[in-house]
Amino acid sequence: MTRSEYDGQGESGPLDSCDRRIMTVIDALHKRDDPIPEDLDERVLFALELEAELDARVASISQNDLVLVRGEADLAVGQGDPASITFDCETVTVMVTPRPAATGEVRLDGWIGPEGTYEVEIRSPEGTKRASSDETGRFVLEALPHGQMFQLVIRPDEVLQREGLPAVVVTPAVRL
């Protein structure tokens, strides 16, 4: 084909029935092979809230034991030993263990290092809950919704900040 044969084709021409069929097939392939995550809205909201925290350090997931193996049997959360998630940034480590509660909700036991007192906030689509750690960094958050995305916001006390800890540490959003 010469250049003149291409004139009038492409992006400037109107869609015809063949173009519509091609677009329908492409749309169906995307929906089947790469669907939009159901929790996309939740993830976007968490990311926007994170950007609002100007001096936040983002902790990464360093260990995720959501399925434990003992011998031949797999143990999932709520069966036998509880699973833990560990988040790390340069100066702070946070380990949380979700435990199912009798009400069908989740209790989150947590430990923060280095030792000291922290304000802990958990954000989820259901809202925000707060707790304070004891002097050893231990905290508990109860009555959390099962199966929801959550994000922790950790604020060390002033003494720890003077020792070099960041004012805010935020974990990535993960599902309980």
TrEMBL record:
One of its GO terms (molecular function) is carboxypeptidase activity. The keyword Protease applies. Keywords: Carboxypeptidase, Hydrolase, Protease. This is Carboxypeptidase regulatory-like domain-containing protein. It comes from Glycomyces buryatensis.
